[in-house]
Amino acid sequence: MFLMNIKSDFNYKIFVEYLKTNIIGSDIKIFNSLDSTNKEAWRMNLDSIINGTIIITSNQTNGTGRRGDKWFSSQNKSLTFSIVINKPNIIRNISLLPLTIGVAIINAIQCYANINCQLKWPNDIMLNQKKLGGILIESKKNKVVIGVGININTDYEDFDKSIKDKAISLKMFKNKKIIVEIILAQILNKIEKKMMVKNNLIINEWMNNCMHVNQNIEYHDSKSVIKGCFSGITDNGEAVIKINNTKKIISSGSLII
């Protein structure tokens, strides 16, 4: 069931004890160090990879987020992994996938750590108004790679100075070390279930956990900055921003709240 690529402290016996999925996590490739779990996935022959395979590392050295932003990870303190989807039929609506993964992650964190996180459009996991984690989804030729990075046991002094006041970890909030293998299993359990949930239920749950509904925001794309009020999302997960009583639909970009 599991493929160990490089010696790691990851305890897969604990992980499999809590894993309750049929597909997601059916195989796991563990690396002591990688530049990026998403990049490693695309370097592999994905046709030969078991659907739902997890690629995980305790030391991601060059992770990236959406729009090429750098994702900072702390060695042995962050949860950084990717899920390889070879057969997208297990996903009910791929356009809602970023929202689906976000909902699944905060469900898992609440279940395991009794911490209520929030969501920021389109792919950020937030806690106490600070960034806890992010999601990067990439697709090529009917293959999907879901990248996730979450600050688990990171201490304040571990964060890069550029994000110290904007980032948080579960340990910082809970004042207690989190068992990475358990939280990962819980996240995968929730992801597999949420992938087949009806679209309207995902949208409703995402909206109920969004931190900036009906709030003034700034939207940044590659060309301009637009100010408006975030009023919700479409059936495809696009942002609806009200600007001078006119609704604008946005499919990508960055929000500042």
Short overview:
By secondary structure, the chain is α+β, with helices and mostly antiparallel strands. It is built from six helices and 15 strands. The protein folds into two domains: 3-209, 2-Layer Sandwich (BirA Bifunctional Protein, domain 2); 215-256, SH3 type barrels, CATH 2.30.30.
Secondary structure blueprint with pairings:
Blueprint (H helix, E strand, L loop, with lengths): L2 E2 L7 H7 L9 E4 L5 H7 L9 E5 L5 E2 L5 E2 L6 E8 L11 H17 L4 E3 L3 E4 L2 E11 L2 E9 L18 H5 L5 H15 L4 H11 L5 E6 L4 E9 L5 E5 L2 E5 L3 E3 L1
Parallel strand pairs: 1-2, 2-3
Antiparallel strand pairs: 3-6, 4-5, 6-10, 7-8, 8-9, 9-10, 11-12, 11-15, 12-13, 13-14
Helix pairs in contact: 1-5, 3-5, 3-6
